[in-house]
Write a structure and sequence with these properties.
Elements (H helix, E strand, L loop, with lengths): L6 E5 L2 E9 L11 E11 L5 E12 L4 E7 L7 E2 L4 E10 L3 E12 L4 E12 L9
Antiparallel strand pairs: 1-2, 2-3, 3-7, 4-5, 4-6, 4-8, 8-9
Protein name: Protein ApaG
């Protein structure tokens, strides 16, 4: 990982770690288009096997406008994590402003059928144009 800020949160033995990366070469500030990638690592530190069923993201731009994104799994998968296992993926999000933040939750189901809502830490999306304006 780079010198960027890593955000982490643990819920019921499931740790979610996120590293946001501003994609300068794919952004077009003059057109109000800023793009970030975010790398996610999910680690099952609990005693039961879990499966990631759904995601719910809340994305907020610098003007406070909110967009919610919900759907099955992540990057086309519904990974199963045994105790001690981990899963990582990379995705991305655009914003019309040079900064913002996002966070949310995963709906997981353990091997007994119990559903868990696992928090995704809220993390800042900051471009070089937003330097000094951390969220």
């Amino acid at each position: 990982m780079t010198d960027e800020t890593v955000y982490e949160r643990t819920t019921e033995g499931i740790t979610v770690r996120v590293l946001p990366i501003f994609l300068d070469e794919q952004s077009e500030p003059e057109r109000g288009h800023y793009l970030w990638a975010y790398q996610v690592l999910i680690v099952n530190r609990g005693a039961r096997t879990v499966q990631l069923m759904r995601r719910h993201w809340i994305v907020t731009d610098a003007f406070g406008r909110v967009q919610e994104v919900e759907g099955e799994g992540v990057v086309g998968e519904q990974p199963i994590l045994a105790p001690g296992a981990q899963f990582d993926y990379t995705s991305g999000t655009p914003l019309p402003t040079p900064s913002g933040f996002m966070g949310g939750s995963y709906l997981m189901r353990d091997d007994t059928g119990r559903e868990l809502t696992v928090a995704i830490p809220t993390f800042s999306l900051n471009s070089p144009e937003s330097a000094g304006h951390l969220h």
